[in-house]
Amino acid sequence: SEIRDFIKKLPKAELHIHIEGSLEPELMFKLSKKNAIEIPFKSVEEIRLAYKFNNLQSFLDIYYAGAAVLITEEDFYDLTWAYLERCKENNVLHTEVFYDPQTHTNRGIDFDIVINGIHRALVDGKNKLGISSKLIMCFLRHLDEADAFTTLEQASSHLDKIVAVGLDSSEIGHPPSKFERVFEKAQSMGLLTVAHAGEEGPPAYIWEALDLLKVSRIDHGVRALEDEALVTKLITEKIPLTICPLSNIKLCVFKKMSEHNYRKLLKKGLVVTINSDDPAYFGGYINQNYIETAEALSLSKEELALSAKNSFIASFISDEQKKIYC
Ligand code: ADE
Ligand code: ZN
Asked: Closest residue (by CA) to atom 10 of ligand 1?
């Protein structure tokens, strides 16, 4: 259709993608055999059939189990390279990639293996595909503060490869305040900050992310609409939200796409962006997210173009670079 073609041609930046969430069943199956890591599935089809979630936690359990097949630097390279090829197909010119070191270090994989594999693919992505990128290291919020501090310490010899720290995993019961001191330390090391907040958790968690963690962007943030003062702050301070429509449907944050508040947020003047979150698990890469959102909410071409423009404005590229893209 015309709107699909428009979306496919639109130059986009992606700002909310977990590299472990781009692990397609085919690669998971292949790596499980190569590395002799057992997964509870007999075939690629069986893996896909298992992707039915009721909430964030039911997804995370499967996502962490799947990530266990990643062992060598080459595995992390291949995972990242496969995602960059999808970026090319989706006309993503710039991507800011999350990764979760603790998912790997806590099962005995060296911190350096993970970051070196991902980083090498990102460098090749720039040189061979022309896709620019930044890497964001996320702390798993269900783990404790000390574990996050250890992870930050491990990152200290790789600061040239990381632009920011983030916060992900199980939101409810693990407020941003739990990581105030870790984020303060990360900022003193020259890193920017972002955090998942207001995906399943309340607006109070978005306030904490802003006030305590000093974030440049809120990841998800769809529950901000419940708090009028918060919406005003997000608009006046131009704090971007990285929204993941297909993720929100698959994890039952909204019952169906026609009930998603994306258009409402956009119309209020928030700097909202469309992203894929964990595309291998949620049914599509960034174009699929744009398409399904556009169709369900009747987004106009102007609204789609604004969403794409927002993605560059909200990115961590330099102002000179932004002028080129916008
Ligand atoms: N890790 C991967 N995807 C996530 C999400 N949508 N929310 C929290 N943690 C995640
Ligand atoms: Zn996410």
From this structure: 169
Distance CA 264, CA 253 (A): 16
Count of structural domains within the chain: 1
Tell me whether residue 145 is one of the annotated catalytic residues: no
Rounded to two decimals, what is the model's pTM?
A: 0.98
- Which of these is catalytic: 14, 24, 96, 199? 199
Token readout for 33 is 């055999």
Relative to the CA of 20, which ligand 1 atom is closest?
2
**Cα 193 from Cα 210, distance rounded (Å):** 10
Q: What percent of the chain has pLDDT over 90?
A: 98
The residue whose CA has the least distance to atom 1 of ligand 1 is 169
28's CB contacts (< 8 A; 6+ apart) are 39, 47, 66, 69
Which has the closest alpha carbon to 206: 191, 195, 193?
195
Instruction: Give the CATH number, domain containing residue 67.
Output: 3.20.20.140
Query: Does the ipTM surpass 0.95?
Result: yes
The count of residues in the chain is 326
Burial of 175 (0-12, 13-18, 19+ CB in 10 A): buried
For residue 96, the cross-strand partners are 134
Q: Identify the three-state secondary structure at position 56.
A: helix
The predicted structure's pLDDT at residue 16: 99
Query: 90 lies in which domain range?
Result: 2-325
DSSP string, 62-124: HHHHHHTT--SHHHHHHHHHHHHHHHHHTTEEEEEEEE-HHHHHTTT--HHHHHHHHHHHHHH
- Report whether pLDDT(108) > 90: yes
Nearest ligand to the CA of 218 is: 2
For 9-18, write each residue's pLDDT tens digit: 999 999 999 9
